[in-house]
Amino acid sequence: MNTTIQEIQKSFETMPFFQFIGFDIIDFDEDRVILKLEIRDDLLNNNHTLHGGIHASMIDQVLAMCIRAKTKSRCATISLNINYLAPITAGTVYATGRIVQLGYRITQAEGEVYTEDGTVLAKGIGSFKIIRE
């Protein structure tokens, strides 16, 4: 299968969950992926801070995008560990990731969610199964 970066990007942008949360792709190529999210009231928890599930989803998404951009293959999350470092109540957050170890079947990747001024809000590391077609 000869899938292009543009086709992969479009597959993410048209995914219902991606649209529902409101992710925007800022940068997407084999070497770098950056997601952006404008915080909305419906993404806040009872403490009026961004819900931890949004951090986790953002990291999971950006890591999968990194892997897909590099391998041109789909992947599935095996495990994902998130460390929450700071809360945020409003504004814009970004996520970026990188591949730590690229294997034929299993790949490790890590990422973080951060603010416009560079404050890191959450860090995560995950294991992903590469789905070769």
From TrEMBL:
The keyword Transmembrane does not apply. GO terms for molecular function: fatty acyl-CoA hydrolase activity. Residues 48-121 form the Thioesterase domain. Pfam families: 4HBT. CDD domains: PaaI_thioesterase. Transmembrane segments: none annotated. Keywords: Hydrolase. Belongs to the thioesterase PaaI family. PANTHER family: ACYL-COENZYME A THIOESTERASE 13 (PTHR21660:SF1), THIOESTERASE SUPERFAMILY MEMBER-RELATED (PTHR21660). This is Uncharacterized protein (TIGR00369 family). The lineage of its organism: Bacteria, Bacillati, Bacillota, Bacilli, Bacillales.
